[in-house]
């Protein structure tokens, strides 16, 4: 597997931003918006395929970005709820489809991943090498000294 770089993490951020807008904010109306997820909810089968496909893609991006287990759980919860509303809409049509249009599951999951990425101190190297060189302590001090950071992730591990 190729070693990840900070550029790779930035690309993941950008890709997630695109899905966030496409799925739940393609058309914005004040604080509300609608995207493909809501529009396709009214097309049987297609809406479900999009919802599940976008959810799977977001979870793959979270795995690539080495998201924390709590972020993965939070994302899975939002995406699971979104999928359930889509499935319910497939079975009962209109009332659940309206809920699916109003529930921005992909947006919430994407924001959770972006928050996780932003709160991580990324290191292009391995933890073993950082410990051997004494750099690991410096990385930990960086996290301790910056309230916006919560963890250190070594991209070559």
Low-confidence stretches: none
Order of helices and strands: HEEHHHHHEHHE
Please indicate the percent range of residues in DSSP E strands (runs of 2 or more): 5-15%
DSSP E strands, number:
4
Largest sheet: 2 strands, antiparallel
Give the averaged pLDDT, no decimals.
91
Describe the protein's architecture and organization.
With 157 residues, the chain is mainly alpha-helical. The chain is 69% helix and 9% strand. It contains eight helices and four strands. It has a two-stranded antiparallel sheet. A hairpin with a 2-residue loop joins strand 1 and strand 2 (32-34). Helix 3 runs parallel beside helix 6 (105-118). The longest helix is centred in the middle third of the chain and has 24 residues, at 69-92. The protein starts with 5 loop residues before the first helix and ends with a strand.
Topology:
Layout: H1 6-24, E1 27-29, E2 32-34, H2 36-40, H3 46-64, H4 69-92, H5 94-102, H6 105-118, E3 120-123, H7 127-133, H8 135-145, E4 151-154
Parallel strand pairs: 3-4
Antiparallel strand pairs: 1-2
């Amino acid at each position: 597997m190729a070693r990840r770089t900070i550029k790779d993490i930035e690309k993941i951020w950008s890709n997630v931003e695109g899905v966030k807008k496409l799925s739940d904010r393609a058309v914005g109306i004040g604080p509300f918006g609608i995207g493909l997820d809501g529009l396709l909810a009214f097309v049987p089968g297609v809406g479900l395929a999009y919802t599940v496909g976008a959810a799977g893609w977001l979870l793959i991006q979270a795995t690539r970005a080495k998201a924390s287990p709590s972020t993965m759980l939070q994302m899975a919860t939002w995406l699971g709820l979104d999928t359930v509303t889509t499935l319910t809409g497939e079975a009962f049509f209109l009332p659940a489809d309206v809920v699916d249009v109003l529930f921005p599951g992909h947006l919430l999951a994407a924001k959770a991943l972006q928050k996780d990425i932003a709160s991580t101190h990324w290191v292009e190297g391995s933890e073993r090498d950082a410990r051997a060189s004494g750099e690991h302590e410096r990385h930990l001090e960086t996290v301790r000294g910056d309230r916006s950071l919560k963890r250190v992730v070594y991209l070559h591990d």
